[in-house]
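Work Package 3 (structural annotation) set out to generate three-dimensional models for the target panel prioritized at the project kickoff. During this period the team completed the workflow that converts sequence records into discrete structure tokens, so that structures can be stored uniformly alongside our sequence database. As a representative example, we reproduce one entry of 745 residues exactly as it appears in the project archive.
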Amino acid sequence: MGKLIKSGGAGSVYLLPGAPAQVAKLYHPHLDRAANRRKLEAMLELSPELPDQLENGKRYVQIAWPQAAVFDGQGGFAGFVMPLLDMAQTAELEQIMQERQARAAGLPTGLGPKLTLAANLAAVLDALHQQQHYVVDLKPVNLRFYRDSLYIAMLDCDGFSIQGHAERFPAEQFTADYLAPEFQRKGMPAGTEMAQDRFALAVVIFQLLNFGIHPYSGRPGNAQVATDIPGRIRDGYYAYGVKRHKLLAPNATSGHALMPPELRAMFDRAFSQSPNAQRPSAADWAQLLRGYAQRSGGKLTICAVNPEHQHFAGQGCAACARDKVIGAAAQASAQAAAQARQAAPQRSRALPGKPAPAPQGQSAVSDTAWVVIIILIVFFVIGFAIWTAVPDDAEKKTEQQATTVPIAGLEQLEWHARKAGALQQSDVRRAVRSLSQAMGKGDDAAVARGLQLLYRSEREKSSGYSGDLARTRLRTSMMESMGWLPGYQSSLSDTYLDLLQADPRDHLAAAALARTHLSLNEPQAARQYFEQAVWARPTDGVAWLGIAATALLRGGGGEQDAANLVALAQVTAQRHAAQNAMPAAEGEAADNGAERTAGRMERAANMLRLAQPGAYPKRWDKALADGAVLAKKLAALPAPPDQGASVQRDSMATVAYRVLSEAQASGESRLTLSIAADGSLTAARAEQFMEPMLNKVILDSLKSWTFNPSVKNGQFQDGKVDVLVRYRNGRASFVPAGVAATTEN
């Protein structure tokens, strides 16, 4: 361990001298390490899709998610390794909400950066939710962002609510000011974390876009209104809705009335007291806010009065209106104070025991009366500013727009998935597991598609085989035959670590380090390094063999998994023999690579047989034999037939929605869907404008469909498919384009 940089209730965080891009968190000894280990394994298996962002040569870690387990000298679980976040380059989200704090910290104060932050936060939360992980204690002081790029930086992820195998690891903390109303009285039962995250996200976004004002703050109309924020949340005192609350007036400096109608409608959904209301999801917020955050969208304009301000297109400038309110209040306070100072000399000339004479035409006023007068003047000016900042007709027009959007205003459904980053090591972990499961189920199409996508990812990577062929042969021979035997040379492990730090795609070094861990009976660590080798070079069957060996050492059904992985290793080696064969030495006859690749695979299998004594070698030989049989079946499979992208009909169920406009209750439209080569939906666009509620229901529905990618010449490709949607009286049904509608479908 290096320097201690942080210590908290769960553990301490240390720098790692040998890995400057990572830190280690060690749990305190008194904690339940068995539960923490199960939680960590769940986090390693279900990592969110949040790869590091590369921009202008800089790397931004979006989330400090665990990367590997840490064990002590006796083999006991101690903690985990996670990426190092450059805290000096980040700031708390709380700092950017208040203009004074933001300026003092050198942060932007305009609406544009805050919209970008809100959209990024929603996207990060959506990635977590897709793996059924939840933050729970979501609040501005727990969130950080990079000052220059505005990417979100999530910390303390082991404190989240984590989904494991048939087990949920709950979050330990929450904050009452951000706790959903249904949990204020009775607490938050297991299985309700999604609702809590949706509520807290809406509160944070509201504060970001409205000068840090909490949506449940305001001026109470009577003594029945709770004075604390949790009490107001519990009782539903949301003061900033399209329809004003009768007992709670909004903050005088709020800019909610100058937000676009669709944004106000989203907040109304998030804070509605109706039992049938559905809070917007993180994906809903990300999609809406991204349109405002993008400069090309034209939904945000620069203020004509103050270039530092931005405001929503078609609306007034909320920042200018806020400045007027604050300025008017300050001016009123100054005037009242000046009047008090002018009256002070008159009082000072009074004789002892005798009141000062009042100026001609004025009556004597006591000190207490002056204080009361000053307070009344300040409140009058603030109230007048509130009254004039948003005139009645403008407020009524805003309310009318917001309430009529779902009725008269139609929208065109247009959705794009978050752009996928480069293949990460966590992606390989999931892909390998999915391939083995598909092998067990006999799903040949899934196996063919998964292998193709993994092999294809290597095109973006630089090859480790380059330069002098003789050197390459020597390096391969040495690294695949040394350094893994127990107690051989510990310095070799340090050498491999140095090589990986210099080049994470050095698949030979990753596989050699994995074999070292195998010899020390550390299959979990070994598997991670074998997976790194597959990530670096997915067409090399030697690394796949290593993963098979780790599966066999896990036990509990690992024999079948090992056989499946051996088959995948053999098929991979055969298909890419020429690419991965060691170069021929001088004087040797050249071949197509098959013989030399087979030799490499045989040597790797023999070395892995020595990983452990006892019954392991016999089990390994059986896994090799069973895998060879499966490999022959895989190799004999015909190429996938050519087909266009499509949707599986049995996944297209009729859905119900709430009709808001009788005039738009019936109709039809055409949906154009973009299907990626991996069978995922990447974009959706409707031909016709429809009700926003119908659009949302359609989008939620099609995200649950099963898609088949396009296939051409045996290769899976991106494609598009058209689907007709027909809706009538609150029910929408779907038919692939070109198929006639019948009573059956």
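DSSP finds 24 helices and 26 strands in the chain.
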